[in-house]
């Protein structure tokens, strides 16, 4: 399964990424909302784990844009 993780806390992101990889998932990690939004628009993912309080674009804004089909 391909998972995108958008999280600006490096240690938290590393822990989540390692746990998901240990379970056999492919994980892409991004650190801010603009990058996460652009990645999802271009590549998509099976699952997205998105922090709410991200720099440049909130996680809620990303989810709203995904729900609106852009």
How is this structure best described in words?
The protein has helices spanning 10-22, 33-42, 59-67; strands at 2-6, 26-30, 47-50. It is of the alpha/beta class. It has a 3-stranded parallel sheet, with helices on both faces. α2 packs parallel to α3 (59-67). The longest helix has 13 residues, at 10-22. The protein is globular and about 30 Å long.
Keywords:
single chain, 70 residues, alpha/beta, three-stranded parallel sheet, 3 helices, 3 strands, 46% helix, globular
Going by helix content, strand content and strand pairing, the class is: alpha/beta
Helix content: 40-55%
Distance between the termini: 24 Å
Unreliable stretches: none
Give the overall shape. globular
> Which whole number gives the mean pLDDT?
96
Q: Total number of β-strand segments?
A: 3
Main sheet?
A: 3 strands, parallel
- Strand order, sheet with most strands: 2-1-3
Beta-strand percentage range? 15-25%
Q: What gyration radius follows from the Cα positions, in whole Å? A: 11 Å
Alpha plus pi helix count = 3
> Order of SSEs, N→C?
EHEHEH
